């Protein structure tokens, strides 16, 4: 078993924070990534989608996971379980120092997530306090205008990585 944390960063222009719509532990926020088999190293062709509210029974009949997937190459089955409570919104100061903010922890058995893809369902708050909701980051960036502060807002240069934690 390996615990892997997903961390993200982005350039924020006139925005104070970026996080999933319902907060870092939003039960309906969808995470998209590919799976790499820890046995043979094969990476899945298609992206997998997981969310906290969506669980499946474990192959051994005990408990549940958020993903059970069989490697197409070596047929080894693996599971991924999401562990909430570890994420933080990406704040402006973290973004400015080019640091990453933790988003979600994954307990991985036999499979590890790779290639996180930014999708829909993000929320950002401008430096003037305006909330921007249901932001779609699948295009790689986002731009809008804050009426209250009369300033343009923008999210760009999205980066994500998975790191093993001990
Ligand atoms: Zn495999």
From TrEMBL:
Write down the Pfam families for this protein, in alphabetical order. Answer: CXXC_Zn-b_euk (PF05907)
Give the keywords, sorted.
Answer: Metal-binding, Zinc
Cleavable signal peptide:
none
Q: Does the keyword Zinc apply?
A: yes
Q: Which domain of life is it from?
A: Eukaryota
**What Gene Ontology molecular-function terms does this entry list?**
zinc ion binding
For whether the record's keyword set contains Metal-binding, the answer is yes
To which protein family does this belong? Belongs to the UPF0587 family.
Identification of the protein by name: CXXC motif containing zinc binding protein
């Amino acid at each position: 078993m390996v615990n892997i944390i997903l961390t993200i960063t982005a350039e924020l222009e006139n925005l104070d924070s970026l996080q999933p719509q319902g907060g870092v532990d939003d039960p309906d926020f969808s995470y998209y990534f590919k799976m790499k088999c820890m046995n043979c190293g094969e990476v899945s062709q298609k992206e997998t989608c997981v969310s906290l509210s969506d669980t499946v029974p474990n192959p051994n009949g005990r408990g549940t996971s958020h993903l059970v997937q069989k490697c197409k190459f070596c047929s080894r089955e693996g599971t991924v379980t999401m562990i909430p409570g570890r994420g933080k919104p990406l704040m402006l100061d973290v973004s400015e120092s080019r640091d990453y903010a933790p988003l979600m922890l994954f307990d991985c058995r036999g499979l590890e997530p790779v290639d996180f893809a930014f999708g829909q369902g993000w929320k950002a708050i401008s430096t003037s306090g305006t909330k921007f909701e249901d932001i779609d980051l699948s295009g790689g960036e986002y731009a809008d205008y804050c009426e209250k502060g009369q300033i343009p807002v923008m999210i760009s240069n999205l980066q994500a990585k998975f790191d093993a934690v001990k």
